[in-house]
Amino acid sequence: MKRKWWLAALAAVLMVSAAGARTVRWAASGDPNTMDPHSQNVGTVTMVLQQIYDPLIGRTRELGLEPALATAWTQVEPTRWRFTLRPNVRFHEGEAFTSDDVVFSITRAQAPTSNYGIFVDTILRVEAVDPMTVDIITRAVDPILPNKIASIFMMSRSWSERNGAARPQNTRNREELHTTRNVNGTGAFRLASREPDVRTVMARNTGWWGWASPGSGNVTEIVFRPITSDATRIAALLSNEIDFVLDPPLQDLQRVRSAPGLRVLEGPEVRTIFLAMDTSREELLHSDVRGRNPFRDLRVRQALYHAIDIAAIQRITMRGQSVPTGTLFPEQVQGFVREEDVRLPYDQARARALLAEAGYPQGFGVTLDCPNNRYINDEQICQAIVAMWARVGVRATLKSQPLAPFFAQIQRDDTSVYLLGWGVPTLDGLYSFQSLLATRNGAQGDGIWNYGRYSNPAMDALIERMKTQTGDARAQAMREALALYRADVPHIPLHHQMIPWAMRSNISIPHMANNQPYFRWATVQ
Fold it and tell me: Which DSSP symbol is given to 315?
């Protein structure tokens, strides 16, 4: 029966394609390093997988919450949430979607090899009430559970277990599972073919439950190509080889705007670019300092902060496409406090004085780790910072590399100082605090992206308050944590990204603040 259903669905796709194909050829600088939906919580992975998989709760064009595989949810008790599932949904290979798949998917996301633990860290257990009803029981009150569940894709239990993928792929150990290259979702598009680092083709899932919703698009095929070179990527758009570029180089935006048949969409992204330092080791790696770790001294962290001319980076490196910041997340995120969004001033003399006070009058040498195809002008930002630090005596050697080896390296804690960009899919500040600043203590989600291994008991206590408190008490905890972030300088915040998308004029698609193109809403004229 399942094989007949799948063949019928495939025939429907072929009929639609033949009758009125609407193909979008999409390019970006990076390619997903896995197709496992619970392995790597990275934008280059989710931008592709959200075309194929669905969560229980979706996001609107304004990033609000809306029903997806769950049609309703309610907090029936302080620590119990009940989800009513959408009936008659099938995975791409024909399996019916039921509560058993929800129990499996959330439990899978809690596995040690998952990078999604922060979204499910408060969950004690998941219970299948009946085939179309699920209860999620939390250890304590979790006021933002629906916001977090919106980031967990649903998988088929039977398919995963049949293919030896009951747990997520371990990318740190370069493990290869069936889910590294294969998928089976319920989403708007199904995977037609996959050549890593070359091409990924997705075909319209005509049986998707959401096509009848208002505002649905008409795209029948997505052809994704990773093109690492900025010049080649924009040349492909200008020569009609590509229809949509997620990350056009800033220096070419005016050229695209003036080209016939092309246009640029722009807006702020819910992402902050910052530098993080190893504040944990007694002796710093990748440095000429012996027996000490300069970054454990607040004065050194402040000195490197003072040495950065953020106005020059905004004006020259980012060509105005950034918003300089002194805080952890942008104003779209719950918990933002404008009074705490204040940078340490650019002051080379103060930077030199602080280094001398800390015992480094001649500065020191260190390696700066940086991706070169993940964030807008990431390598150029790091090049500018290397030059700025050199003026105060800090001799930084830049190590830039593509996102896959970069993430693999920092996730092994093999770094001294690195550049990272952090989006906030929950639109709640706890996500940033818990991921980036909580002490790594084995609790799911705590410090999962804290590769500087920053640890401060006062910060940990504030994060614990955020997890369970509500209303004014929770807002006060965030305010105090942002003040501590400014005072303790665990990071050097740089800016919030502005994100341009370049495309053909005949394509309409909502510009999303999470920098994720939702092709289910795209139309091609």
Answer: I
